[in-house]
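Deliverable D2.4 — example input (structure tokens):
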């Protein structure tokens, strides 16, 4: 198997994943994944597609991610890895979609409107 390249996005984060056969090493921005995402929840979110397909130790994954915060980055990485697994074996798409791992979450921050406090919050109305 040659190198598989995929892209995952979430909010303003963009993750590019390079997947090849290996021993299960995950490197994010030249750091070990557990060092890049120190909390268990974020790391579990990153490896969720691999755990679902039971191939945690089959592939070496190198990821370049930028933009956004750590939650958006972890979800962008999750989507990139899920897309790579589908490129490797198209039969896995159904099980990944059932867990919601193939859907790109398109929600972004709504912009602030002029003459308002925030995107939806208005200034307090005074009658007199």
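Example output (designed residues):
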């Amino acid at each position: 198997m040659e190198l598989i390249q995929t892209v995952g996005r979430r909010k303003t984060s963009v993750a590019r994943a390079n997947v090849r056969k290996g021993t299960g090493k995950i490197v994010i921005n030249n750091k070990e994944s557990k060092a890049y995402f120190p909390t268990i929840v974020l790391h579990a979110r990153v490896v969720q597609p691999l755990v679902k397909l039971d191939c945690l130790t089959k592939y070496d994954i190198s990821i370049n991610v930028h933009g956004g915060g750590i939650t958006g980055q972890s979800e962008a990485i999750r989507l990139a890895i899920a897309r790579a697994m589908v490129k490797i074996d198209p039969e896995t798409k159904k099980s990944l979609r059932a867990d919601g791992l193939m859907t790109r979450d398109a929600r972004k921050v709504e912009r602030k409107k002029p003459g308002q406090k925030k995107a939806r919050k208005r200034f307090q109305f005074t009658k007199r």
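The chain has one domain: 4-98.
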